[in-house]
Amino acid sequence: MKARELVPLIVIISVILTIGGVLIGSKLVPEENVKKFNPLSEISLQSNLKVIKKPTARDNILLYSVNNFAEEALHIAQSDPSVKQIISEQRDKP
């Protein structure tokens, strides 16, 4: 292959590398925008933090819910027999 035939290939590669270098240098690549992305700041979740159970000397557990729905879900789950079985199995473990 002659050098003259390689000139278009060299020009194309040079243009691509130059564009990439400019984008990286000016921080316009998607990776830079991801660093600033915070999905939790984009939503509005109403939270009424409620303490359901405070820790005691015997049972060092703090239960809280972020809203009324979470508190209701906790009470439903705690009355479920399969959940009670799982909790009792975990408490029996050393």
Low-confidence stretches: none
- CA-CA gap between termini: 75 Å
Walk across the major sheet and give the strand order: 1-2
Assign a percent range to the helix content.
55-70%
| Largest sheet report | 2 strands, antiparallel
Please state the average pLDDT score.
84
Structural class: mainly alpha
Strand content: 5-15%
- C-alpha-based Rg, rounded: 29 Å
Number of domains: 2
Number of helices: 4
What is the 3D form? elongated
Number of strands: 2
Secondary-structure element order, as H and E?
HHEEHH
Characterize the structure shown.
- This protein is mainly alpha-helical and 94 residues long.
- It has 2 domains: 3-36; 46-92, no CATH class.
- The chain is built from 4 helices and 2 strands, in the order ααββαα.
- Strands 1-2 form a two-stranded antiparallel ribbon.
- It is elongated.
At a glance:
With 94 residues, the protein is mostly helical. Helices cover 56% and strands 7% of the residues. It has two domains: 3-36; 46-92, no CATH class.
